[in-house]
Hints:
Helices cover 40% and strands 21% of the residues. With 240 residues, the chain is an alpha/beta fold.
Amino acid sequence: MKRRILIVEDEEHIADGLNLNLEMAGYETVVAGDGQTALELWSQGGFDLILLDIMLPGKDGLEVCRTIRKESGRIPILFLTARDRDDDRVAGLLAGGDDYLTKPFNLQELLLRVAAIFRRQTWYSASELPETRYQFGDYWVDFASYQALGVTGEIGLSQKECMIMKFLAEHANEVVPRDMILDAVWGYNVYPSNRTVDNFVARLRKIFETDPSHPKYIHTIRGVGYKFTPSGESGTSIEL
C-alpha cells in the first residue's frame, strides 16, 4: 500500500513540484493551500506524513501543528519554510514537528528526509523492549498509546518525546552521545542541533523527575550526552 502524504503549501508552483516528485517516488499525495483546509483534510484520516509550510494564509503552520498534536502525537510532520534561523527551527520542532527543511531546498534531499522519517517509524514500531509499556521507578511510558505516568499523573507525550524515551530505554545504564540520539530520532546529525536534544530532555525531566535540577533517571554526562538509569540513581546533572 502506498504511503499517503498531505502537502500543505500555499505557493502553487512549489506545491505542484512537490506533488509531482512525490508521486513519481511512489507516494500518494493530497494538496492543501491553507491551514484550515489542511486541518479539515487531516481530520478525515488516512495520512502517513504531513509536509507543512509555516507561512500560510490564515492559520500558520505552527498553529496547524499544535492543533494536530493536541489530537495525535503519531503522524510525522515535516516543516517546509523560508525561515532558517536556529530559533525558528527549534520552535518548529518543539511545536511537534519531526523535521525541518529550509526553502529553497533540493528535491532529492526532501525525498531522502521523507524516506528517513518512514524508516524511523519502522524502528519505533519494531521495539527491542519486551513490552510496549515500559516501567521505571513509579513511572511508565506506553510506546503504543503515547501515554505516560509522570510526576503529576497520566499525560500524553509527543512522538519525539516517546522516541527519545524509547531510545534511552533501549540503552538503559549506557552513556549515549547526543549525536546518537539525533541519528536515531531524527535520522541524521547535521540538523537539528544538540540544543534541540537538550530542550526535549529538559521537557522529559519535568515530566518524570520530582526535582529536574537533580534528576534520578536522566543524567547529563558533561561533554558527551545522557545516561538513563531506570533504577533511579541520585546524582548531579549539569546542563551544557
